[in-house]
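Case study B.
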Amino acid sequence: MRSSVIKVENVSKLYRLGQVGTGTIQHDINRWWHRVRGKDDPYAKVGVSNDRTRKAGAADSTDYVWALKEVDFTVEQGEVLGLIGRNGAGKSTVLKLLSRVTAPTSGSIKVKGRIASLLEVGTGFHPELSGRENIYLNGAILGMRRQEITSKLDEIVDFSGCAAYLDTPVKRYSSGMYVRLAFAVAAYLEPEILIVDEVLAVGDAEFQKRCLSRMDKVSKLGKTVIFVSHNMSAMQSLCTSILRIADGRARVKSRNVEQEINSYLHDCRAAQPSFPVALEDGTRILGLELNPPILASGQSLSMIFDMEFSSETVVTDFAPIIYNQAGVRTGVMDGRGKLALPKTFSAGRHRLRFDIVTLPLMPGDYVAGLYLRTHSAWVNHECLGDIQVISDAGMEISSYPVEHLGILNVNFSAAKI
Amino acid sequence: MTSKDEKEWDLVIRPTSGWFQLHLRDLWHYRDLLRMFVWRDFVAVYKQTILGPIWFFIQPLLTTATFTIIFSGVAKISTDGLPPLLFYLAGTTPWNYFATCLTKTSTTFKDNASLFGKVYFPRLIMPLSVVISTLIQFVIQFATLGVALLWFLSKGIVLHPDVTGIIVGTPALILMLGGLGLGFGIIISSLTTKYRDLAFLVAFGVQLAMYATPVVYPLSSVPEKYRFWLSCNPMTGIIESFRAIYLGQGFFSWPLLVYSGCVTALALLLGVLVFNRVEKNFMDTV
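Model:
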């Protein structure tokens, strides 16, 4: 049997909801008074499980919530563990605890070897510094020694494909270049345990492929990888085991990756999305209207998002995404560029409407999601609504095998020449 | 759980650690990061400016000029018989070093929340890097004092700089300035992660504190009955000593310096302990 490198034992994490203000100090004093007398935290007891459908102000509501409750699992050397679960289920909290960004409320985590996390690429990049300077800075933040970076500089630059821009400040980089450079640094970090969160959300297809092959290589070297992504096909091809987290509790870790992913996707589709979806900075997705929710291939589809911003908010990405049953991103609409999505939204409610002129998807069930990033928060929600594509009555075609994703509307003509 | 079991693991993450588990070995491992941060702060500040590092000199010179006009010219406050330019330069540069260290480190957690929220490294690296990069700035500015001093001496003005005092005293005094600023700064930053009230106090508190320190006036001009209270300020001994060794005119006293040293050590110790305690969970409240 291979040795375990991470042992998570009975870990719970309590978060306080609502705002910190004058009221909080009363709780703090009360808690301190209980501790002085050797009693348990009076508020930890009343914390409820992490169930997002619970309405604020409901009868059983308290100001505290268990983001994680009594989570146990072990990770073995060389394992590639995928964490899956809906938004807010507690995946990120697990990663935050593992990477020591915050401490658990109770329980313990034991680690063997150096852990490095790739929670969000580009962390600590300084916009004024050049690409080369940022490689050193970023490497140092991730715990690399200077000579370690120097010895790998060529490989890093090569992998990122940014050689020509190495002495340009990164603020002039495109977002794709930025991500490539950041991932390259982390990819050559070579820790014993690598934590990867949602890197594959950005970057072009070729780069994503390179990332995946790099991660594959890392795991073949006997390193351990913990991986969170919404890209289920990537999960399926990379992971050797899956841990599903629901409402702050971990299910049993499964080595049957395919079955676990399918059952998760099935449950995900069955569950109704719970609006509003709130981001950390107060931005809320109030609702999504799909018009019509059932349509034939090639017909038009409108996606209407109702948003609420608590203050003037910079929105850097607003990309509705359509997923197929396997969780593959079959279509993405990028609000930037030609669509000229406003960069800032004023406080209050806004309606954003995306009209897909012809939906080129094969008949089948699809899910509409949204990748939303503001200046200080982000969410990648993969099931906000269901779309059912039925075959066009006029089309006399038999159904295609699943690997065909799109059906393109074309004008056709034939003439003898 | 046996201690043998614990030894198998390189790292054990628990809800709270003891007060004295300071992870100093971690800090040493990340020394390259400290160097990168210092260098980043130094380089990045003046990027996209025409004058660049010259701004380091312009700031203290303008402050000194303002003080010379207002406190010496208009208010006619004594400068202990020293040329006003030298008097204010020797007071404001060390004071500014302390004040900058204090205000910059006092917002460590708040300013770096997004970075701290994503990746772990010993948090103490951040305030340490601030103190060191500010030190570089201070040394450059303090060189201005040296140049001004030589210029006044060459013009035949009688001054009595104490050369051995300068060589021995300068590093010790700088250490105290940085230590005081860092100590109080990280105490404040630790106390303001949850309740920001104290942060409001810092900005104008530092300004007020300058007037409770002999920066724009000499200690000798202070009435006898207030002198004791002024000496309770740990900065008093340091600033007066600076003037005493560089300009030969100032209140140099060993007991006062030892007192300043003790306060520095105490502030640093308390600061590191509180900071270490807070860093584990501050992300949940900041």
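Residues 255 and 338 of chain A are 44 Å apart (CA to CA). The remaining cases will be described in the next quarterly update.
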